[in-house]
Amino acid sequence: MVTIGRTWFAMARYQRQASTGLWGATKSPPPPAPPPPLPKRVSFLLDDAMPSNVQKVTPSLVRVYFDIPYQVHQ
Q1: How far is it, in rounded angstroms, from Cα 28 to Cα 34?
Q2: Distances (CA, A) of 65 to 26, 57, 62, 72
Q3: How far does the chain reach from its first CA to its final CA, in angstroms?
Q4: pLDDT (tens digit, 9 = 90+) per residue, 29-73?
Q5: CA 69, 61, 57: angle at the middle one, nearest 5?
Q6: How many helices (H) and strands (E) does the chain have?
Q7: What is the DSSP pairing of strand 23-27 with strand 12-16?
Q8: SS3 label, residue 16
């Protein structure tokens, strides 16, 4: 089983033409729609030793996941 990510590039099937030696592409159908995200309940361990301003902003923190197709260096 192979999982193919189509986030950055469309998927296509390539087949070599015997007469010309060139590779022709056939576009693949679009992927099925992803399932809707499920809500999750989150709780924070806040203790009285934390400053009040830290306790106020803690519920607003988020984590962002991302990926890039190529790493670019300068």
Answers
A1: 17
A2: 32, 20, 10, 18
A3: 37
A4: 988 888 898 988 877 777 788 888 888 888 888 888 777 777 777
A5: 155
A6: 1, 2
A7: antiparallel
A8: strand
